[in-house]
Please model this.
Amino acid sequence: MSGVLRVDAGELPADEIIDAMREGRRVLVSVAIAGDVHEVALRYDGETYLCDTPTRLHRHVEESEMRDCIERMGYGADED
Model:
């Protein structure tokens, strides 16, 4: 499946976000930054996980690195 998945930060757990990325979907996460709402684009090109923020493009080689980024930045829902 390809296409865009739009979510609010904290709406989906990291596992679901990563599953969508591995399926070829771009995940657009709406986040509040400095009082404004911005979109962060998360995607996977088959080799590298990419996190495109308003200020920087982050690259992660390992899925675990992407998961840590999603959790650390608050893009994913808390998993209890």
